[in-house]
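Reply to dn_fold:

You asked what the input looked like. This is it:
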Amino acid sequence: QVQLVESGGGLVQAGGSLRLSCAASGSIFSINVMGWYRQAPGKQRELVAVITSGGSTNYAGSVKGRFTISRDNAKNTVYLQMNSLKPEDTAVYYCMSTSYSLKDYWGQGTQVTVSS
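and this is what came back:
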């Protein structure tokens, strides 16, 4: 089992920045991929960014150049630095991890609201 706890969400004006953190605990040695998804009201959950244990990253096209995902394996923590935020970035952001056995775990979510 892996437990994921997010922090860092909040309210910010358009053009501002936020940094999300997600700390993993439990069977951390099983974790391969960590990342962030988001879900806006009335929309499906979508990929934001993911990072492998080796540091390879993948981003949604809508956030490329504005968001940066990073990972501190010593602290079992993944970060999402979000710059130049837009109102359309408003959503609940979920941390996720995928184990080497392809089992997914999810955090409880943190609200990000960007005002225009």
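The mean pLDDT is 96.
Hope that clears it up.
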